Structure formats: structure tokens, C-alpha cells
């Protein structure tokens, strides 16, 4: 087929679809710099050139295209030479694909070439969806969906017009109001139905990918001994040699002073709402950075900061450390896969839900501290991505109450249950609150409940007077505090009761974005909480302020759970109004869907329209010959009358008449070849009549 | 396990073949008259009844007998006279002394093909006895309803010009004939051949049954499966409506007439080898199906009604896309 595609609006809409798909992919990091230029400027240019040369298709251009294609292939092979990881292939592959699309746009003489580009744009959109961790592509997705639908409508119309039979005066041509309305209807229906489904389908369970993402924006090694670094601390960064005043805080990146070798509860950080990282995980947990074991009444320290190098192929296996204690109680476990996308440069801590077993990290080695927490040997700047797989014990309150082992290893008691530094009235209070609690778990709960009932959660608390005990000050003087005070008090009082406990710092799960499925962790989600050791099971986080359920107690929500609340908070529209709007949308969508389904099948429509055109053509012929069709005359009868004028071709006329009749009245109308055959017959008859006519005057027979 | 009936519900190619065979067979007997033959086949396949209306001697009875022979199955012939009683058609119950019980003796209506010759010579009372048989294919005698054999096809003849000792057919009677056809005189060539022994009685004697009741019943059922598009149905309704509002007609076509027209059109489509009805099927059969049912303001002959239907047809526009 050599027909060239002349409909300009179709080209424009396909170009829009391809460009929006490409931009969506680039927004999600499929490429940068040159590719952006290529997409923004290149596609309009190549589409335009493709339009100009659609008929000529100069050989020079095609040669150049082939050469460029080979070039792209060579570059691709050269780039993937050192890549061993399958996942790392997708970006070079996508980039080569984009360049090839750019070339292909030059050579789109017909509709098929354009539709190939439309399918290719679907590939790009899928890629963008895979790479996506935010909602940044949503607008581009909408633009793509709309222009792709417009393209389909226009392509369908062009196809209708191409059928030689169709009535050129009546068939809708090119671009008009319905070109926009039909795609909008479809888009609205798809969105409405999709949103409804989204609200009810359950969240996908465990990740089933073969490999998980892990990238670093740049590889700047820091200290090789695995020491902690936190750029937010400025001069107080433990990596820096200077020892400046630590009260001089700032609003630097991570904004929290906890990620350090010491945690001074007298210092008040001012974490803001900066997005720190996004976490892809199937259920919420504490994203833990490090723990502290030594308390002096004001400052937490970690006594055994001895990072050891662990390395291996991806994923890097993370061993159990002695501080984790032995596993003696059979508790179901699950694998929680967490992928961390850092949005702000932060400490070199590798966040992980307790207890990490595997890490997908862009380096071959990481460090593991004696408490089991992980650190990177490189800077973790914005853009860094790594994945941690944690094997969580699915504990429930029941298990923690009754199923614990009896013996706590001596080392753990030594390190985590030594008598705390605190005041006598704190000690007495601890015993008093837990007097009626039989098990360690109940004691923890009793203390948490007491905090909840007798103290207030507040970020604005007075600074700690010099020489005062932080716990005493919180429980007896201020009676106000935030996570540090509460967590510290819990640890101190548990230790007083002989239960091993420690302070963990990291981030609360953050808010789950129902549309991306990722937890959005802000600087203000920085958190500290108590970890309590349960013999035979291990460390279990407790926190009365952030609601994180025990791993075994959390249920499965719908994928879209909270979607309305999420939107409502961002659009400043009440949830109920949104729900009503969504419901209306679904209803309207359904109405359109049902209307669409009830429409006549396409083949019938085409054949009716064809019959109408052909009958009109015959009527015109008849009028020219002075034998118009009487309204009560059927097509075959009329055609037979024309055959009499024509003196010959009776069989051809008969066939024309019966085929048109069949197209109008048969349950299975004539197919395209049968229609085309009649078209050719009619064309031949018409040509014959115009060259030498028989001007006889006949009147309608009936 | 339940056995499912694997017999097809409809077989249009079988019906088409049978229609062709019947037409050829009948045309062999009634030479030079393709149109009456075609209408006879259509009446048979549409599951209706046929009235042949013409002067004596043109072959009315010949056509009726040929149809009976060709259709196979049982055949009875009734010669109508003014003293013909209804019970002589339907049958009577007689008392058996030996068995001490009533026994029903079926009348001549209990046959697959029934020929009623010179129908208008029977009294209206006797004519009415045919109504139930024709429409419902059953007969009620002494309060007992008995079904007639399947298929049941009634072909009647009448002479419209004979007036002495005749009773014009009642409207209800006429409405039950799907098609009324005339035969008309043969052309000279055919008549000459007839004189020389071609066709006619000798051909009738040579005619073998072309089908059997079971096959015929299946073909009739198949014909009803022919597709009728909404446009064609609309066209049919438009024609029927036009007869109802026409100034010269006091009683137009009934819904039964429209249905009969559609069934006849379906049979016509099968005869032409189509599995769908086109407006031409309707148009071609409107006159033989409708004309005899119309009651004109100005009572006239059937030919007047035919002319009227013809005019009406030119006033109803054909469906167009």
C-alpha cells in the first residue's frame, strides 16, 4: 500500500501522544540533557519532516536513517558492555528506544507508521509507570491518554473515509467537536471505573520482582571505616573533626540531630515538612537508622560503635549480630521489601525495618554496626536508591505475653538492662505503674498507657535546665514532651524493672500516597522510639506516639484506601464532597459505557453507510439519464430499470442491486471485498455512461 | 447424562432445496404459469393456506391436486355443495353398540393436505366449520378438541363468476387464506402443448411425492427463522397502515394479514435463496396476501382490490439507509 496519510491533525495528535509519553519517561529519570532537547525540539521537527516527505520518501533520508539506527545500536552495545545487572539495562534500552522513535518519525508515510508510533508511546508510558515513584507523571499521563484517544478517533475516521464507498459528504471528516468529546467520554469512563476498582482491590502483597532498584547519584566515598556522617549536622557532623557547640542547629536537609554518634535530649531540632524520602513497602514499619544503649541522664551514646564490613554480590546478605539474640521461639515471619528513594541528602545510615536480611545496594560492601544497624561507605545524596529486605517476626500481643523464652543472654542484659542513671522518684514510679502487670509486655503497655494519660505530647517544650535529669524533668516537672522524652523514659523505666531496652532512631512510616503506593517520609517524621528485648524472639519496637501496629496484627487494606482523604487534604475539599463527586463520576461513566455497548456493531454501520452512498450514486446516475428512482421503488427494481436503459450488463446491475439490498437488510452484511467489487462495477458503469450515453426517457415503473 | 437434541432448529438450505423441487414439480404439471406455482409453494412453505380463485377449466383443481401429490402425506378431497354439513368435514361420534361406547370417526379434514373444491358453494355455516381447522389446526367435535395432522395445508378453489347457488366467502374465512391466486388462461403455445399431451392430467399422474410431512414441517419451521430487519418490519407496517387509512377501503389489513405477509415474504426469500427478507419480498407478495382481505367501500371484484393495493404500494416509500 502506498497511500500517504494526509490528515495533519492525526499527525499532530500522534506527535503529542509520543511527546507526552517521552516526557513522562524522562521525568521519571529515563534520560537527561540531550534527550530532553531531542524530545522537545526533535519530535516536532521529525514529525514535520515526516509529513513533508511522506510522498517522496527520498533515498538520502532513508540511508541517513539506517546509518543513524546503526549508530544508536553501536552506542547501546558500548554502553551496556560493563552492565551485569539486568535491571540496569532498562535505562540505556529506553534511551536507545527514544532515539529510534525519533528516527522513525521521519519515515511515517502512512497511517500504519503513525499507529506504530502510538503503540511505541504506550511502551514509553509503561516504562514511566515502572520508574515512577511520585505523581509527577500524572499530568503527562492524562495528556498522553487524551492525545492517544484523539489519534485513534482520527485514524478510525481516516479509515472510514478511505473505504471508497463512504459518503464523503456525510461521513465525519478530520477534526471536529466530537473528536474531542469522544476521547473525553472514554477517558472519563476509564478514570471513573478505574478509580472505583482502585478503591476496592487489595494492596499487592510481597514484591515478586527478580531484582530491586539500587542506584547512587554519584559515588563519593566517605570514610572507609564505616563511621557515621550526617551533613545536616554541619559542624556537629561526627565525620567532621571539629567539635563545635551542638546547640547551634539549623534547618539543614534531614533537620534532625538524632542521626549522630550521640543524642542530646536537651537539643531541640526543628524538622520541617521537607520530603526526605519515599519508601516503597507493602506495609508500614519503623524505618530505623541506629540505636543507643548508654544513657547519662541527658545524652544517649552508643557504646559499641564498631562497624564491620559486610560484602557480597547483590543482594548483600546481612548476618544476625549477637545483640539480636538467639531465635528460640517459632514465630511466623514475613519478608518486608522496602525500597528507599532518597529525596534529600542525608546521613549515611541505611534505613531498614527490623530485622534486615538482604540489602540491594549499588556498592559491593556496606557496614554493619554491632547493634545490627547498617551504614553505607559512601555518601547517600538525593537520588540514591537502595532496597532492604527485612524478615519481620509476625508477633502479636498474645505471642509477646506468653511465648517468650525464659533466659536472656548475659551480654544483652549486660549492655541493655544495666541500672539506669535517673532519680529515685522515677524508679519508684516505674514500679508503681507496673505493679499489676504480670508480663514484660504488659509492663510496657502499662507504662505507655500511663504516659498517654498523664503527659501531653508537645514539640514545644522548655529547654532542659542544666544539670537536670531529662526523664525526671519530663515525668514530674514539664509533663510535656515528644518522642525523645517518651522513648527515653520508657527505656529508662523498663531498665529499672530489669527488662532490656534501648532507644532507636529513624523515621516513622510517613504518609502513604495511595496513588503511587509509596510512603512519603518528611523530615518531621524523624522519630525515636523504644525497643524492648523479648527473649527468644528479639527486639520489638514500641511507641505510644506513632501508631505502628505489631507486624502480626496489621491487616491488608485496599490499594486505594485513604485515596479520598489524601486528595481531600491536598485539594482542600471535604472528603464527603469528593466521595459524592467520585460516585457521580462512576455513574456518568457507567451511563456512557452502557451507551457505548448498546451502539450498533461497527460492521453494520459501515455497510449501511456504504449502501446509502451507493444508492445515492445510482440515483444520481438515474437522474442524469432521465430515470429517477421513485420513492416506492426498491433498489433492485430501480437498478433493473437502469439496466434496461444501459442495454447490457444486466448481471452486473443485478449484482449491484442485491448487494446494496443485502448491505441494508441482511443480518450478516456483505464484507469489504464484496463491497469493493460492487464499487468497481459501478465505477465501470459510470465511466461507460459518461463516455456514450443512451438518452432515453423512462418513467418509474411503479 | 441428559441427551441433548442435536437436530438443527432450522435448515434454510434444506428449505431452499425443497422449495426449488416443489416449484419445478408443480411447474411440470401446470405449464406456463410460473406465478401461481410460485405463490402456491410460498403458501405451503409459509405454513398458510391457499385459495385458487378463477373461472372453471383453467387448472385450479389440477394445481391443488398437484400440490397434494407433491407434498406427500395423507390427502382428502371435499366437494362443496349447498347441502354439505359441518360434521361431514370434521367427523362425527358414533355409538358402538358392541363396545357400548362412543367412537369418533374423523372427517376429511384429518389429512395433511385437504382440497376443498368450489368452496363458495358451501353454506356459510359449513364454511365456518373450517375456521378453527385453518387457524388453530384443530377440530372440536362434541366438546372434544382434536389436533389435525402436522403439517396441515388447505387448498380451496372457487369460481368468482358463478353466482347461482353460491355463498360469498365470509371475511373471517378470507382472512385465513394466506394467499389468493388466480391462474388465468394459458398462452397459445402452452395450450397447444396441452392438447398434444404435455402437462395436465398425465403429468399429474406421473408426479411422485416430492417430500414427506416430517420434512415439510421442518422446512416450514425453518422458513420462520429467516431474518427480518427492523426496517423491513417498519415497511410492512407502513403498507398495512396505508390500507387502513385509505379512503376507498372500509376495512384494511388486520395484524394477522401483516403477519401472514411477513411469513409469505420469508418463504419467498427462501425460494430466492436468501436468509433475510428484503422489501421486494414484501412488495411482491402484498397483493396476493392483502387484496382478498380488504373490504372496499364500493363492493367490487377481487381485481378492484388488487388494483387498489397496487396503488397503495406506489405510495409507500421504500426503506433507505
The rough form of chain B would be described as globular
Largest sheet of chain A: 7 strands, antiparallel
Taken together, the total number of domains of chain B comes to: 2
SSE-based structural type of chain A:
alpha+beta
Most extensive chain-chain interface: A-B, 20 and 21 residues
Kindly estimate the percentage of residues of chain A that lie in beta strands according to DSSP.
5-15%
CATH class of the largest domain in chain B: Alpha Beta
Uncertain segments of chain B are 1-7
What is the straight-line distance between the termini of chain A? 45 Å
Protein architecture, described:
The complex is a heterodimer of chains A (702) and B (321). With 702 residues, chain A is α+β, with helices and mostly antiparallel strands. Among the domains of chain A are: 8-140, no CATH class; 400-515 and 525-568, Roll (C8orf32 fold); 602-691, no CATH class. In chain A, 45% of the residues lie in helices and 13% in strands. Chain A contains 19 helices and 20 strands. Chain A has helices at 8-27, 34-52, 59-80, 90-106, 111-131, 138-162, 177-200, 397-402, 410-416, 424-433, 440-454, 470-478, 483-496, 563-571, 575-598, 602-624, 635-646, 650-665, 672-691, and strands at 262-264, 275-280, 287-292, 294-295, 299-301, 308-311, 316-317, 333-342, 349-350, 356-360, 365-368, 374-375, 385-393, 456-457, 480-481, 501-507, 511-513, 518-522, 526-534, 538-542. In chain A, the strands form 5 sheets. In chain A, strands 7-10-13-8-2-18-17 form a 7-stranded antiparallel β-sheet, with no helix packed on it. Chain A has a 4-stranded antiparallel β-sheet with strand order 3-16-19-20. Chain A is elongated. Mean pLDDT of chain A is 79; it is low at 164-171, 241-253 and 695-702. Chain B has 321 residues and is of the alpha/beta class. Chain B has 2 domains: 11-186, Rossmann fold, CATH 3.40.50; 226-315, Helicase, Ruva Protein, domain 3, CATH 1.10.8. Chain B is built from 13 helices and 11 strands. In chain B, the strands form 4 sheets. In chain B, strands 2-5-8-1-9 form a 5-stranded parallel β-sheet. Chain B has a two-stranded antiparallel sheet with strand order 3-4. In chain B, strand 6 (138-141) and strand 7 form a beta hairpin. In chain B, helix 11 (255-271) crosses helix 12 and helix 12 (279-290) packs antiparallel against helix 13. The longest helix of chain B has 18 residues, at 12-29. Chain B is globular and about 70 Å long. Classes of the chains: A alpha+beta (702), B alpha/beta (321). The interface between A and B is medium-sized, with 20 and 21 residues.
Amino acid at each position: 500500500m502506498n497511500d500517504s496519510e494526509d490528515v495533519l491533525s492525526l499527525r499532530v495528535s500522534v506527535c503529542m501522544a509520543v511527546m507526552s509519553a517521552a516526557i513522562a519517561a524522562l521525568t521519571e529519570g529515563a534520560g537527561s540533557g540531550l534527550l530532553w532537547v531531542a524530545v522537545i525540539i526533535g519530535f516536532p521537527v521529525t514529525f514535520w519532516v515526516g509529513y513533508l516527505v511522506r510522498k517522496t520518501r527520498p533515498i538520502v533520508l532513508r540511508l541517513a536513517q539506517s546509518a543513524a539506527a546503526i549508530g544508536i545500536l553501536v552506542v547501546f552495545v558500548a554502553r551496556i558492555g560493563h552492565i551485569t545487572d539486568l535491571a540496569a539495562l532498562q535505562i540505556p534500552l529506553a534511551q536507545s528506544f527514544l532515539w529510534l522513535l525519533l528516527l522513525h518519525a521521519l519515515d511515517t508515510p502512512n497511517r500504519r507508521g503513525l499507529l506504530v508510533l502510538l503503540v511505541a508511546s504506550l511502551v514509553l508510558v509503561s516504562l514511566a509507570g515502572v520508574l515512577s515513584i511520585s505523581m509527577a507523571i500524572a499530568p503527562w499521563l492524562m495528556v498522553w491518554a487524551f492525545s492517544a484517544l484523539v489519534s485513534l478517533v482520527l485514524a478510525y475516521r481516516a479509515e472510514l473515509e478511505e473505504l471508497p464507498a463512504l459518503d464523503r459528504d456525510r461521513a465525519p471528516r478530520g477534526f471536529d467537536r466530537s473528536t474531542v468529546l469522544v476521547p473525553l467520554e472514554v477517558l472519563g469512563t476509564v478514570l471513573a471505573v478505574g478509580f472505583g476498582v482502585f478503591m476496592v482491590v487489595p494492596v499487592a502483597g510481597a514484591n515478586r520482582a527478580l531484582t530491586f532498584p539500587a542506584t547512587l547519584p554519584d559515588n563519593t566515598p566517605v570514610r572507609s571505616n564505616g563511621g557515621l556522617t550526617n551533613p545536616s549536622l554541619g559542624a556537629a557532623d561526627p565525620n567532621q573533626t571539629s567539635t563545635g557547640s551542638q546547640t547551634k542547629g539549623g534547618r539543614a536537609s534531614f533537620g534532625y540531630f538524632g542521626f549522630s554518634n550521640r543524642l542530646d535530649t536537651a537539643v531541640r531540632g526543628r524538622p520541617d515538612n521537607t520530603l526526605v524520602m519515599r519508601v516503597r513497602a507493602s506495609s508500614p514499619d519503623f524505618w530505623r537508622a541506629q540505636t543507643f544503649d548508654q544513657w547519662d541522664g541527658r545524652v544517649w551514646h552508643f557504646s559499641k560503635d564498631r562497624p564491620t564490613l559486610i560484602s557480597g554480590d547483590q543482594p548483600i546478605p546481612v548476618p544476625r549480630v549477637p545483640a539480636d539474640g538467639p531465635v528460640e521461639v517459632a514465630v511466623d515471619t514475613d519478608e518486608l521489601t522496602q525500597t528507599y528513594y532518597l529525596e534529600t541528602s542525608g546521613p549515611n545510615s541505611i534505613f531498614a525495618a527490623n530485622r534486615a536480611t538482604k540489602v540491594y545496594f549499588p556498592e559491593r560492601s556496606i557496614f554493619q554496626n554491632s547493634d545490627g544497624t547498617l551504614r553505607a561507605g559512601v555518601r547517600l545524596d538525593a537520588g540514591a536508591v537502595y532496597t532492604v529486605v527485612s524478615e519481620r517476626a509476625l508477633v502479636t500481643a498474645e505471642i509477646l505475653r506468653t511465648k517468650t523464652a525464659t533466659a536472656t543472654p548475659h551480654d544483652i542484659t549486660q549492655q541493655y538492662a544495666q541500672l539506669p542513671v535517673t532519680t529515685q522518684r522515677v524508679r519508684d514510679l516505674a514500679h508503681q505503674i507496673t505493679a499489676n502487670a504480670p508480663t514484660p509486655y504488659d509492663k510496657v503497655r502499662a507504662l505507655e498507657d500511663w504516659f498517654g494519660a498523664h503527659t501531653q505530647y508537645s514539640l514545644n517544650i522548655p529547654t532542659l535546665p542544666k544539670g537536670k535529669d531529662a526523664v525526671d524533668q519530663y515525668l514530674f516537672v514539664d509533663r510535656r514532651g515528644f518522642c525523645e522524652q517518651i522513648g527515653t523514659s520508657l527505656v529508662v523505666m523498663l531498665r529499672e524493672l530489669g527488662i532490656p531496652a534501648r532507644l532507636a532512631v529513624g523515621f516513622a512510616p510517613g504518609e502513604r500516597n495511595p496513588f503511587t503506593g509509596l510512603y512519603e517520609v518528611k523530615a518531621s517524621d524523624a522519630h525515636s522510639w523504644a525497643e524492648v528485648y523479648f527473649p527468644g524472639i528479639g527486639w520489638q519496637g514500641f511507641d505510644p506516639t506513632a501508631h505502628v501496629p505489631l507486624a502480626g496484627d496489621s491487616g491488608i487494606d485496599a490499594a486505594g484506601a485513604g485515596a479520598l482523604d489524601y486528595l481531600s487534604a491536598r485539594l482542600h475539599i471535604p472528603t464527603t464532597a469528593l466521595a459524592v463527586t467520585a460516585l457521580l463520576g462512576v455513574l456518568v461513566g457507567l451511563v456512557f459505557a452502557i451507551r457505548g455497548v448498546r451502539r450498533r456493531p461497527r460492521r453494520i454501520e459501515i455497510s449501511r453507510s456504504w449502501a446509502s452512498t451507493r444508492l445515492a450514486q445510482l440515483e444520481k446516475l438515474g437522474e442524469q439519464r432521465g430515470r429517477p428512482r421513485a420513492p416506492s421503488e426498491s433498489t433492485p427494481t430501480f437498478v433493473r430499470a437502469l439496466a434496461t436503459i444501459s442495454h447490457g450488463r444486466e448481471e452486473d446491475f443485478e449484482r449491484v442491486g442485491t448487494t446494496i439490498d443485502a448491505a441494508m437488510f441482511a443480518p450478516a452484511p456483505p464484507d469489504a471485498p464484496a463491497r469493493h467489487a460492487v464499487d468497481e462495477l459501478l465505477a465501470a458503469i459510470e465511466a461507460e455512461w459518461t463516455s456514450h450515453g443512451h438518452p432515453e426517457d423512462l418513467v418509474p415503473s411503479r | 447424562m441428559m441427551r441433548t437434541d442435536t437436530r438443527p432448529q432450522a435448515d434454510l438450505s434444506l428449505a431452499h432445496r425443497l422449495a426449488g423441487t416443489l416449484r419445478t414439480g408443480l411447474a411440470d404439471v401446470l405449464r406456463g404459469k410460473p406465478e401461481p406455482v410460485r405463490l402456491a409453494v410460498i403458501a405451503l412453505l409459509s405454513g398458510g393456506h391457499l385459495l385458487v380463485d378463477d373461472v372453471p377449466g383453467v387448472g385450479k383443481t389440477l394445481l391443488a391436486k398437484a400440490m397434494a401429490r407433491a407434498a406427500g402425506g395423507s390427502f382428502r378431497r371435499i366437494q362443496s355443495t349447498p347441502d354439505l354439513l359441518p360434521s361431514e368435514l370434521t367427523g362425527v361420534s358414533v355409538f358402538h353398540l358392541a363396545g357400548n361406547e362412543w367412537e369418533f370417526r374423523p372427517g376429511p379434514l384429518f389429512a395433511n393436505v385437504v382440497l376443498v373444491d368450489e368452496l363458495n358453494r358451501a353454506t356459510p355455516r359449513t364454511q365456518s366449520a373450517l375456521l378453527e381447522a385453518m387457524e388453530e389446526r384443530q377440530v372440536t367435535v362434541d366438546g372434544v378438541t382434536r389436533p389435525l395432522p402436522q403439517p396441515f395445508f388447505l387448498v380451496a378453489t372457487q369460481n368468482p363468476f358463478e353466482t347461482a347457488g353460491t355463498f360469498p366467502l365470509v371475511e373471517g374465512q378470507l382472512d385465513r387464506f394466506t394467499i389468493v391466486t388466480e391462474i388465468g388462461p394459458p398462452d397459445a403455445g402452452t395450450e397447444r402443448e396441452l392438447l398434444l399431451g404435455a402437462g395436465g392430467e398425465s403429468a399429474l399422474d406421473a408426479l411422485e411425492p416430492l417430500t414427506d410431512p416430517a420434512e415439510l414441517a421442518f422446512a416450514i419451521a425453518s422458513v420462520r427463522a429467516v431474518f427480518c430487519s427492523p426496517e423491513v418490519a417498519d415497511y410492512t407496517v407502513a403498507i398495512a397502515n396505508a390500507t387502513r387509512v385509505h379512503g376507498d377501503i372500509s376495512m384494511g389489513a388486520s395484524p394477522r394479514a401483516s403477519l401472514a405477509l411477513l411469513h409469505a415474504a420469508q418463504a419467498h426469500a427462501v425460494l430466492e435463496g436468501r436468509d433475510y427478507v428484503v422489501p421486494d419480498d414484501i412488495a411482491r407478495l402484498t397483493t396476493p396476501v392483502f387484496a382478498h382481505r380488504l373490504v372496499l367501500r364500493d363492493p367490487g371484484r377481487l381485481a378492484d382490490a388488487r388494483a387498489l393495493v397496487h396503488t397503495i404500494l406506489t405510495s409507500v416509500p421504500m426503506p433507505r439507509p
